[in-house]
Amino acid sequence: MIFEIVKSAGIAHKSYFIGSKGAAAVIDPRRDCDIYLKLAEKNNLKIEHIFETHRNEDYTIGSLELSEIVGAEIHHSNKLNFAYGTPAKNGDKSKIGSLILEVFETPGHTDDSISIKLKDIEVSKDIYMVFTGDTLFTGEVGRCDLYGEEEIPKMAKNLYESIFQKILPLGDEVIVCPAHGSGSVCGADIREQEFTTVGYEKKTNSMLKKSRKDFVEYKINEKLYTPPYFRKMENNNVKGPKLLCKLPYLKPLSMDEVKWFLENDAQIVDVRNPTDFAGGHIPGTLNIWREGLPAFAGWFLNYEQPIIVVENKNNFMDEINRFLIRLGYDNIYGHLSGGFPVWFKGAGAVETLRTWSVHDLKKKLEEEPKDESLFLLDVRKEKDWIEGHIEGSHNVYVGLLKDHLEEVPRNKHVVVYCDAGYKASIAASLLKMNGYENATNVLGSMKAWKKAGYPVTKN
Questions:
Q1: Is 219 helix (H, G, I), strand (E, B) or coil?
Q2: Which residue, of 147, 286, 317, 413, has the fewest CB within 10 Å?
Q3: Beta carbons within 8 Å of 404's beta carbon, 6+ residues apart
Q4: Which candidate, 409, 293, 282, places its Cα nearest to that of 353?
Q5: What does the angle CA 217 – CA 223 – CA 226 come to, to the nearest 5 degrees?
């Protein structure tokens, strides 16, 4: 048996490539699907089946893209009216070599959620693995709020039954392969662990120690953020996204071309680190550090206006391209040729962003503890703010900030902090784009504040 985990950074997505005796299957493929072709070629396998565990919300599925190339059959739930593929129901089986893949319905995260049992009948008739999609994770279970607040009780009950009546009875020794790892927005607090087993989760997953009543109550009270790009992903994954055939070419753009795009409402995203951005950047640009693109682009970038990327030396354009393509951004247009150094060497207009250390912030708060000209903005998740924050701070999650600018006074010095200064740089750049001239990013943010031994207030 051939088994490979294909991980997509940032969105913490996991797809799976499995094969036996010349045949292979892929579970929840990503849109840039060349990795599966390479695995098939390396192992001399033909991809015959593609499984989708549910209508994914956080990335554009690559099933159609992969099927177009290899001719594989796509399987997904019959509980949703997909515009492509083959509807699957409880008990449907597919064979690849000595492997048997059996679908069983596990609603709760979504109505169309399915899981897939795997047996290697050449070895044993027992179940070896289960691919659980977004139903059961390592240390966590799937979110239940995607259909709206009023549907959470029903979805939570369904999720509980799917886990306790269908997955856990498979056997403690069964390996659990979820669709996401730590950092995914599809679960509140997924453990950083490659995969797990049914027995290990029964012992270590706090959600599996709850009664049905407590499980449902917990899910009703759970507060999770829903990025606006989810709607686009849901539409893509039901109707089928546009076929790429190959990764789009990011055009190298001259300074004058970038200036034109900037004047014509293009989306210019600077993917350098916060310190580089603070030292100098093109006025009116948004800063999302490169590794943060998969997690945060969907909060701020739209799907209509062209996206232009600014980097330092343009060494990571392929990676950036893939990050955005996985989120369905077919409006990626190009990048500043030669990177930001070309801009300032060419006498382009440059803005800076003020930065403070945590010591600067502490000194300012001690000198003028009641200074009404300073507005301390914490852009971490509300849960993190409640667990510990700097006294006097106001909390607006970075992803929600553009729709809550009215909560941030324009006539004050806005000092922004987060976990380490990266999300704070997104927020500060967004504020500057919206006319807030006096914004400061606290480098190191809460991580450095705690390291320095400065006081933390709990709510």
A1: helix
A2: 147
A3: 396
A4: 282
A5: 130
Q: Is 115 helix (H, G, I), strand (E, B) or coil?
A: strand
Minimal CA–CA distance to 31: which of 305, 308, 294, 306? Answer: 294
pLDDT over threshold 90, residue 148: yes
Q: What is the pLDDT of residue 246?
A: 86
Which residue range(s) make up the domain with 326? 251-345
Pair 132, 176: CB distance under 8 Å: yes
Answer yes or no: do 13 and 132 share one domain.
yes
For 47, the 3-state DSSP assignment is strand
7 and 92 belong to one structural domain:
yes
The C-alpha atoms of residue 146 and residue 450 are separated, in whole angstroms, by 35
The edge-to-edge listing of strands for the beta sheet with 99-105 is: 93-96, 99-105, 114-120, 129-133, 175-178, 196-197
Q: Would you say the C-alpha torsion 323, 325, 331, 334 has a positive or negative sign?
A: positive
Q: Is residue 459, in this structure, part of any structural domain at all?
A: no
- Name the E strands within 11-122: 13-20, 23-27, 46-51, 73-77, 86-88, 93-96, 99-105, 114-120
pLDDT tens string 208-266? 999 999 999 999 999 999 999 999 999 999 999 999 988 889 999 999 999 999 999 99
Reduced to 3 states (helix: H, G, I; strand: E, B; else coil), residue 95 is strand
Q: Is 337 left (phi over 0), alpha (psi -120 to 50) or beta?
A: beta
Q: Count Cβ atoms within 10 A of the Cβ of residue 450 and give its class: 0-12 exposed, 13-18 middle, 19 or more buried.
A: middle
